[in-house]
Amino acid sequence: LEDLEIHPDNKMSLIAGTYYTGILTSNDDGENWSSIGTGEQPTRVWDIEINRSRNKLYVASSNGVYVLDLE
To answer: With a threshold of 0.70, does the pTM exceed it?
Structure first.
């Protein structure tokens, strides 16, 4: 696990950036996880940041920087 963010509108929703499995999300406080895609799944995520005012998730990875809509 490289980085973990809590969704600003749902404290049970977590977003994790991982070194080997890309971006994972959990809607049940970490009990279950699923992968979220970027079209080209980054293999190594170094940092994730949430921009609440723009409702975006920024991902810095070995494949580049991604900007995803935050759901």
So the answer is: yes
